[in-house]
Each structure stands twice: as structure tokens, then as C-alpha cells.
Amino acid sequence: MEFIRDYKKTAIIYDGKEYSYSEMIKNAKGVVKNLDIKKEDKVVIFMENRPELLYTFLGTWDKNGTCVCLDGSLNGEELSYYLKDCTPKYIFTSENNYEASKKALDISEINCTIINVDKCKWDYNGDEETLKSPEREDVALMLYTSGTTGNPKGVMLTFDNILVNIEGLDKYKMYKDTDRVLALLPMHHIFPLLGSGIVPLSKGATIAFVKELSSQAMVDALNNYKITMMIGVPRLWEMLHKKIMEKINSSKATKKIFKLSERVNNISFSRIIFKKVHKGFGGHIRFFVSGGSKLDPQISRDFLTLGIDICEGYGLTETAPMISFTPIGAVVPGSAGKILPGVTVKIGDDGEILVKGRNVMKGYYNRPEATAEVIDNEGWFHTGDLGHLSGEYLFVTGRKKEMIVLSNGKNINPIEIEQWISSRTNLVEEIAVLEYEGLLTAVIYPNFQKIKEEGVTNIGETLKWGVVDKYNNGAPNYRKILDIRIVQEELPKTKIGKIRRFMIPDMLKNKKVEDVEVKEPDFEEYGIVRDYLKEAKGKEITPSAHLELDLGLDSLDMVEFVAFVEATFGVRLSENDLATNSTVEKIAEYIKEHSSGIELTNTNWSEILQQDERKFLPKSNTIGKIIRTLFKIPFNTYIKIKKSGIENIPKNKAVIFVGNHQSFLDGFIFNEAVPSDIQNKSLYLAKIAHFKKGLMKTLGENSNLVLVDINKKLSETLQCLATGIRDGKNIVIFPEGVRSRDGKMREFKKTFAIVAKETNTEVVPFGIRGAYELYPANAKRPRGGEVEIKFFEPIKTENLSYDEIINKSRSVIEKWVEKGNF
Hints:
Blueprint: E1 2-5, E2 10-14, E3 17-20, H1 21-32, E4 42-46, H2 51-62, E5 66-69, H3 76-86, E6 90-93, H4 98-108, E7 113-116, E8 130-132, E9 139-144, E10 154-158, H5 159-171, E11 180-183, H6 190-202, E12 206-209, H7 215-224, E13 229-232, H8 234-249, H9 252-264, H10 267-273, H11 275-280, E14 287-290, H12 297-305, E15 310-315, E16 322-325, E17 338-339, E18 343-347, E19 352-357, E20 363-364, H13 368-374, E21 381-390, E22 393-399, E23 404-405, E24 411-412, H14 414-422, E25 428-436, E26 439-446, H15 448-453, H16 459-474, E27 483-486, H17 504-508, H18 524-537, H19 555-569, H20 575-580, H21 584-594, H22 605-609, H23 622-637, E28 639-644, E29 656-659, H24 666-673, H25 676-680, E30 682-687, H26 694-701, E31 705-708, H27 714-726, E32 730-733, H28 751-758, E33 763-769, H29 771-774, E34 785-791, H30 802-817
Parallel strand pairs: 2-12, 4-5, 4-6, 5-9, 6-7, 11-12, 11-13, 13-14, 14-15, 26-27, 28-34, 29-32, 29-33, 30-31, 30-32
Antiparallel strand pairs: 1-8, 2-3, 9-10, 10-20, 15-16, 16-17, 18-19, 19-21, 21-22, 23-24, 25-26, 33-34
Helix pairs in contact: 1-2, 3-4, 18-19, 18-21, 23-24, 28-30
């Protein structure tokens, strides 16, 4: 049957050149005219995205052959598997892939002819102006599954499987002959092969290939070729969404306009308001298409607010590919669209999506047992995906084999957690949630560019408490993330961006490293830095080791390292210097470039803390006194404090108070429990994140708070604490760093121990009980009840080590708080 005709216009644009429909038809016929291709003879197409891929595809169909499209990045050994499996008659390949094709043939030892499209003649002189398709029941296309479990299987698709997809799209007039479609994704996947290749050409549209897959190439193509539609995977829309929303959120005015457009909910209004955004996409976009995996509903909503439909579809290679899709103007965020006409869907007892209809494959090539595993006796194809129907719309909720089933029988959909976290930060490039070593774990590949731009030097703490903890605060206990693993390489993915979760555990395991000789830099500064770090962390040091992620330098380690570098090399490292030069070799090169000479020395905390620093000391305690007065009523009625050990508080000398951190109430409980003269001369260490703007900033500056940023100025903060002590001020510290998430105590950080020992200041431990029960971290407001606070005898620090100070302080508190003794 006739499939493509000469539309008397441009069919394909590639590398700045335009190819007409007439040229395309002649080239498709010319490349196969002398080939012996009969009905369902298999022809492998093995090349990168380019016009010749479509010429060879359409030429093979014109002769009623079966196209087998393979990943153009396969090497010879990988390719040989597919050749042995499908035994093609011909291989169409490019100069880039010719050697791999030859090697694959040698390995597979099959009888097959290689045709290099860069060297063959395109000389068809006939006057035919159409290209035919295979017959409806013929196997027109064979594509391979990704092989995530076992070897890849060849999916046999008849032309009727494909035709029902085309007819469904025609019903809603998704493609027009005036469309110009940008082809980004590799065409060995059915989604881009049909959606941005074969189907647009069958409707008289124009396809524009990008020669290289980059952001700039995409932007250039959108503007130069007046693109009207583009097909992409969720990862693409996530990337574009982040960039757009960053610009919108950077201005109060644009944020208000965006909120207004959201309320108006009119696509014509939005297109006028956000004309600049549309112009950034070339100014001609009718709609975008998303497929391959589920799109975050918030991204879909925000694009609608911008006046752009992202029409989401759902399906598999085995369903050619569509089961459902979203017509233009009918986007329902979170939904995979309406069921394709001619297709029936039902939801199994276990929530699995089952499909029957003309779109379901003929079967897996030469694998009847595997076919029977997915197509039951009644003809229902089992997708392996979970979902539900709501009216005309299908909602896909997860993949059966990707669902995490806990020991208590509860199911967790990792994709929902990943999307929640990704949508609320620009510091995460990729995230995968899985059960690893018995714990629900988030594996994070950070956005190192944003990490660098924002001067984050404590990546682990920032991601744990600034990103993941925000999710945990609102999640039920069984869905809380209990471990974070930060990786320095992208997560394993398929070519269209799906994360290969089954490969992540191997990625995280400490694999045995082959004995490879690492060439170390031979300049003196590197050797000194390497030896210092080796002694400090007790680890072997390599030039490429990341100071935090590989060597485990925390914020205090960084302070010591900065002090060591300044004393040894005369180089003052800033937070930006550390963020920019994050590996051992890079920081050593930076030191070498800026060094004023070398004088070997050791880090001296006493010397560091002698420096008088007042930058972060509060202006007054005016607001602190007001708050204390205001809180007297609630602390005498709603929340009652039972206090003891007040006699253990020294009155005539500065001390460091150290307590466990149960809730947001803890600072107020301490404030209310101690006598007013103690409260007035006590400085509280607090996170700057809570006191950055407006009223909170004013409160922080006038409430005896010393504000600390885990990524910046920690050494100066410690100097401020030491200065405060010399001024006769007490210091109040909760050395766990964060409020308890489960009521139990965490390890104490050593900040207070360093300051205490080096200033010879006594430590007064105090314990708080009951505050977690009244105000846990995920609660919106506290409950009424009783809390207890107890002050213990001071600990003299002069003859103790840092660890001894920490252990003595923590053990006395823990014994009372968690064991109920004393």
C-alpha cells in the first residue's frame, strides 16, 4: 500500500542541507534497487541519526522487507549477538560504524552483505513518486528490548501494529503537513523512530536532524528551522523546566505573573504573557511530546502555565509503541493520556496494566516461551507496569519490578520520591531511590556546576539536611530515606534516559580495583598535601580523589586543612577556592600557583582561636529578652518545664553548655530554664539558613545568636565563639547539628570540644526529655505537655583530648535522656 508520496517540499534537514520528498523517495528506491530483498527478509540498519537511516528504512519497506534498527553505538562484539539472533540478509551502516560491522560479521560467521551508505551510489532514475509499506500482517519492524533481565529479545511488529498508532494520531490531527519536527533521540528506539521519523514523513511534515546532541545544537535547530513540535524523554523536560523556573523565581515580579497565569489557566493568555519563553523555543512550537517514562506532573502543570502542552504518551516496544497518548489541548498532568482507539486496557487484580488490541506485537523472535510469559491465553499483554483508569485517562503509577517491597509488606514507588526531591532543588542532577543493604537509600549524582556556583563545600551535609530531610519531614516512617550515597559519575541509563536500577548496587559496591599505576604529580606542593591528607584521614591518596566525597573531609577537617595550607604555603583558601578545586591534584596545583614559599608546620587550633573575631557576634539581646518574656505564659500553661541541676551552673565564669537536640523547642526550653543573668550572657550557635531575610534576620542579629553556615566561614565562626568566651559570654551548643528525627541521640560533632579545650573552658552538659514527643520534626505545631531539662556537673577540659571531652559530655546526657537514670 502507498505510504509516502512526493509532497513537493522539504522532507529532511540535516547539517544545514535540505532534502526534498522527491530526493528522499529516489534515494530510498535507489539504495535498494539492486538488492535481493523479498517479503520479510531482515535488513539491519546500524548507523547514527542521519537522512540515510530513513532512506534505507523506507527503501526496505518499499520492497516489503523487515527493518531491524540497532543502536549505532554498539561495538563489534555487541553487534554480533544481534546478527546471530536475527540473521539478516543485509546490513546498512555508515563509515563511522563500518569497522564494527565487519568485526561483528567475522564473529557471528553469518552470510550477510554490508553496505556502507557513505560509499554507495544513489542513482535511481525512475519516475515513481511514492514509497510503499509492507502489507498489514507482514512483520515490518523488529526492535530489541534493552535486555535489563537476560539477553535482549527481538520484538516482531507487523505493519498493522504500527498502523493503529498512526490512525489514533490521525483521529486527533496530531500531525500536520506544515509541521517541522526536531529529531533528537536515537532511532533504534520505536518512540523516536515513529514519532519523529516515519509518521511525520507519512503526513508530509519536515524532519530536522541535529548532527550532535547538545543544548546549543537543539536551541539552534529550534530557531533556525522553525520547529513546531519536538519529542523528548522526561529528562529533557526536567532540564528545560529547571532553567525556565530558575529565571522565573529569580524575580518577585515574574513569580507573581506566573502565579497569575496559573490562576487564569488560559493557554492563549499564557502564550502572550510568556512570549519570551516561546521565542526561546523558536516561536513556532505547537506542542511537545514526552514518553519513555513518567513525567513529573508539576513539570506538566508549569509548562501549561507557560502556554505549552506537553502531550504525554505511554507504551512499550511490544505495543508498537502506544497504549495511550494525550491529544493537544487535553493535557491532564500526571496522566499518560487517553487509551488509543482500537486498543483495550484493563487493570489486573495486582494493579498491573493489561492490554489487548491491534497494537500488540506478533511476539518475540524465535522465543515462543518468552512470548507466552507476557501474552496470556486470552490475548492480554502484561505490561509489567502498574496503574489505574480514571474516566478516559490512564495513570501509570510505577513499574512492578521497580517497586520496593519492604519486609513489612508495604510497597514504595521510588519514582514518586525521586520526582518530589528533584523538583525542589537544583543541586541534584540525578537521583535513584532503592533498597540497599536493608535501608531505603537515595543515590545522588549532584549537579556539580550548581554546587560550585553556590559555593557548597560540604556536599554531604547540604544534600542530607537541606534536600533529603525536607522530604523525610513529610513522609511516613516506612517511606523515609535512611541513607544517602553520593556518586561522582552519572547513574547507568538506557539511551533514552531510563535509569538502569539493577546496575546501581554494583556501582555502589567497593569493587576490586585492578593494579593500575597511577601517575602522581611530581611537584613538591602535591607531595606535602598528599602526605597531610593521608595522615589526617588514614586513607591512600590519589590525585583525582575528591576532598569530601572520596576522602571524607567534613567542615571541621576543611578548617584544619585551610589552616595547614595557610601556615605551610602562605595561601589563604576561600570557600570558592575549595569548591572550584575539589580534588587533591587541583587544590595542590592552586596552592603551587599562589604559594609564597614552603614552611612545614602542624595545624594549631590554639593559635587559630586566639584571633579576635566579632563578625558573627550579635548586636544585642534585645529581642531575646522580649521572646523570653513572651514565652513565660505558654511555658507555664501549655508546655510545662521541669528543671533540675541549676546549682551545677557556674555563675562567675564563662562555660560551654552542651545539650541533646530533640526539637525546635530546645533553645526556648534552655532559655526559660536558666536564670536571667545566665541567659543574658549566653550565646547560642544556630544555623544561618533560618535567619537570612527580613524579620528573621533582625531577630537573629538581636537574640544572642552566633549564626553558622556549614559551607562558609566555619573557622571565623569558631573564632567568634572563642572571642565571646574571652568576653565572659557562655556558649550554648547542640552538637548533634540537627534535631532528632526519631527521638534518639546522634553522634556529637567536635566543634565544641575544640573551642572548650583550646580556651580551657569548662563544659556543662544538659539533657532534655519529652520535647521530641511534644514537637517531632515533621509536626506543624507542638502539643501541650511536660518537658524536663537537667544540668550536670561541669567537665574540666584542660587535661582531656577532644574525643574525651565529647565522650564524657555525651555519655552523661545519654544515660539520663535515653536510659532514664539519675
